[in-house]
């Protein structure tokens, strides 16, 4: 920060309210700077995305004992959208521009624009996810609940639960994803008690609709549960029993493409329908774009088994989002929400209807979008997106936190992580922040353990297939730091099935191995259960507690979460030296419920609370 000028939008000393702004809500900005030479004018320059600058005169407030001058301005922005701003100071002979540094602090004569997101609360922010814990499951790989149906003639039904998923391409150079291990909905039902022991409040299922592959991202029929996963009655039972344990179900909505082996496209004639591939008179023909009918068509990322849909084509939009459409059908069954696959590839005309359909069926239904970047200013296919301005997504997948948490754990760059957190908190509405899906890995990325550990030579796909971590103790320390930050930063942690059991794996399908029942890493599982218990006990603070930075240098990342319910202190030490924190009052380390000794050792992380405020669980006594 340049000491000549002071402005930091994440502090109410300078900007109120904090974060994104509701349309029509008064905004106050305070700028402080050293007297240059009797400024004649000070302006806020506010610009709506794509429009002209608007200058707002700032009023002189006071001069501090150190000669710092303070100017203020009150603005009411009535139109939602994306805005940017900086400040101008005019003197008799000079003009000074005050802009934003990379850490959001003001810079004199330099920097870019600060961002101001202005939104409308079209829908009330969902509440059930706040302060909870999401658990992501690929149904085929979680647990076999019995009664395997084996309904696909082409499939390879495997009986080696701990085996390596097929990864070698066939003679045509394609990986078919046609091996099935037997995980199903009844398996999830049987493991609800286990999920409860982790502190899980929401189960996010990768696609469960009928499809050719094991991963189900090639939808065959949106109206059917895949027969290998079970029946619609199994899903209803899962929803009901999960709800009794305080858990909601989120389904994966894959609408940017279908499978070529589907009731809609029917390339192989396996369905009793007239698919788009078969006839230009098919009721589904307009859903797709053919370059040269029938064999040349637009497909998702040029993967020909995934023909791309025309989401704004009225018949497709109605089929998915209409009153009798897919979204309402499953939402009315009692699910808690949707995770929309590749949301940046879904046009606004579709997203608006999709969210409306979900909210019409259940106002508290949450709609999360898969977005890999800052969703507040995302440009997709040359168009600025309005995901978070109101009327669209409730929240998004939080890949920015993921990348910089991992960067901190590997390299000790606390400054970059703190900057990323501050930027997201500045740019996102509070309802979005509180529902962020905070992930460290998914079915699309390498597993956390493999990213942080030393697996030796991983130069080829064959070597990555069988790679194993050499130093599990050291890796677990790194995982503990990453997971603790994931569980305590603003948002909701999303735990990828098996991470808590020590599953390893690089890219797909190595990251999609079956859950290692009976072969879990007990130390890893114990660590995750402790974190889940902390989240459960401290839900009141972690639901929407304010993020207050404490340290972001020399390999130490420390912050507080503050709310009316109390305060937590989180300190992660990625340096090679002990970090001393000796507050005036006594603190308890919440993962162990032991007194905090005042020092955080290298490669360690603590969650602290004033001992006087800790509610200790009752000790169990033998009868």
Low-confidence stretches: none
| CATH arch. level architecture of one domain | Sandwich
Radius of gyration: 26 Å
CATH topology of one domain: Immunoglobulin-like
Number of strands: 36
* Proportion of beta-strand residues: 25-35%
CATH top level of one domain?
Answer: Mainly Beta
Q: Categorize the overall geometry.
A: globular
- Helix percent reads 10-25%
CATH superfamily of one domain: Immunoglobulins
Mean pLDDT: 96
In order across it, which strands form the biggest sheet? 26-23-22-19-16-13-28-27
Through-space gap between termini = 62 Å
Summed up, the helix count is 14
Largest β-sheet summary: 8 strands, parallel
Which secondary-structure class do the elements indicate? alpha/beta
Structure commentary:
By secondary structure, the protein is α/β, with parallel strands linked by helices. Among the domains are: 5-119, Immunoglobulins (Immunoglobulin-like); 257-310; 549-613, Sandwich (Immunoglobulin-like), CATH 2.60.40.1180. 21% of the residues lie in helices and 26% in strands. The protein has 14 helices and 36 strands. The strands form nine sheets. The protein has an eight-stranded parallel sheet with strand order 26-23-22-19-16-13-28-27. α6 (348-361) links the parallel β22 (337-340) and β23 (366-369). α7 (399-411) runs antiparallel to α8 (414-427). The chain is globular and about 80 Å long. It starts with a strand and ends in a 13-residue tail after the last strand. The model has no long low-confidence stretch (mean pLDDT 96).
